[in-house]
Amino acid sequence: MSAQLACYTADVPVAGTLRVELEGETGPVEVAVVRDESGDWHAISDICSHGAVSLSDGEVEDCTVECWLHGSRFDLRSGKPLSPPAIKPVPVYPVTVDGERVLVDVDAPL
């Protein structure tokens, strides 16, 4: 597969997130599409590596998203946890903005 439509730019505010489900080679993939405080776009797994809850329900600060349940913060560029209790990174996916369309490739994690 290749990049697929995840949402439209108007769907995600600056410093905001949107949960989407995309079709990967092995089945559905839950993705958090994020626009950081600078307006840059990111796509990461929507599932926290520690608590198995939705990261798209967390708060965006700078280039990170915080898990709402236990407070782990993840770098949106690398998926690496920046604070405990999470110790495992989450997958990060390539994002392309084509006009108003936000495209994500869940089969080519970074």
UniProtKB/TrEMBL annotation:
PROSITE patterns in the cross-refs: RIESKE
Keywords: 2Fe-2S, Iron, Iron-sulfur, Metal-binding
Rieske domain: residues covered: 4-104
Nucleus in keyword set: no
Pfam families: Rieske
Xref: CDD domains: Rieske_RO_ferredoxin
InterPro entries (alphabetical): Rieske_2Fe-2S (IPR017941), Rieske_2Fe-2S_sf (IPR036922)
Keyword presence, Secreted: no
Protein name: Non-heme iron oxygenase ferredoxin subunit
Organism from which the protein derives: Cellulomonas avistercoris
Organism ancestry: Bacteria, Bacillati, Actinomycetota, Actinomycetes, Micrococcales
